Amino acid sequence: MSRNESDESRWDRTYSGRPKDYPQPDPTLVSVDHLLPTQGRALDLACGVGGNALWLAARGLKVDAWDISGVALTQLTAAARTKGLEINTRKVDLNQTLPAAGAWDLIVVNRFLDRSLAGPISAALTEGGILFYQTFTRERVVPGGPGNPDFLLRPNELLTLFPTLHVLLFHDEAAVGDTSRGLRNQSCLVGCRMSLSS
Ligand SMILES: C[S@@+](CC[C@H](N)C(=O)[O-])C[C@H]1O[C@@H](n2cnc3c(N)ncnc32)[C@H](O)[C@@H]1O
To answer: Per the domain annotation, does 33 fall within a domain?
Structure first.
């Protein structure tokens, strides 16, 4: 079995055992609502059951939601139907399929890291398009997240992965200060692809 076939079946198994509640958006994404477009096309990459995709569709965006797990996408489709939302789901192995250049006004990546996708993700934004990227860091203040360091961000790494974007917001709070507050265990970058003339 190839590595990605095993990824697919592992994630399918994870989602098969998940409680069938309505998927919720990530609180950090909701907190940057004012930076996000309210119309146009959005892509939720490695969307899982699509709490973020559903929230974006309810805000008026045309949403594409890609994931390797067919089980997760089936659950997302069912949730969208209950709310009368339209989400264009696509079963994709991101090791084999890249997002098209200049196609999305907003790309959301939450709790997924494949460093080789950083360039294609930046290029997949329209001019003025927004990237929301949040995922787990090597520095943790509580247990959780992937064990494999390949899937964990180094300090400030999101800044180096997306050097062509104008940074609107960046969090990497590590273990500084009162660790019972703030965004811990994860780093977040919201960036904008500026127009070529600016
Ligand atoms: C930790 S989950 C995050 C899901 C969602 N973004 C969220 O925050 O709830 C990681 C997701 O990445 C997906 N994934 C893993 N490898 C993938 C690949 N090669 N291509 C596409 N999706 C993949 C998994 O199926 C899983 O849904």
So the answer is: yes
Question: Residue 164 has what pLDDT?
Answer: 97
Identify the residue whose C-alpha is closest to ligand 1 atom 12: 46
Backbone angles phi, psi at 132, to 5 degrees: -110, 115
Segments forming the whole domain that contains residue 33: 3-192
Among 15, 67, 107, 150, the mutation site with the greatest number of ligand 1 atoms within 8 A of its Cβ is 67
Residue 197 lies in a domain: no
Number of domains the chain is built from = 1
Measured from the CA of 109, which atom of ligand 1 is nearest? Answer: 6
Pocket, ligand 1, Cβ cutoff 6 A: 4, 7, 11, 46-48, 51, 67-69, 72, 92-95, 110-112
Tens digits of residue pLDDT in 28-55: 999 999 999 999 999 999 999 999 999 9
pLDDT in tens, 151-178: 999 999 999 999 999 999 999 999 999 9
How would residue 195 be classed by pLDDT, with cut points 50, 70 and 90? confident
Give alpha helix (H) positions in 141-186: 157-161
In a domain, 122, yes or no: yes
SS3 (DSSP) at 82: helix
Q: What is the pTM of this model?
A: 0.96
Query: In terms of Cα–Cα distance, which of 125, 103, 98, 145 is closest to 195?
Result: 125
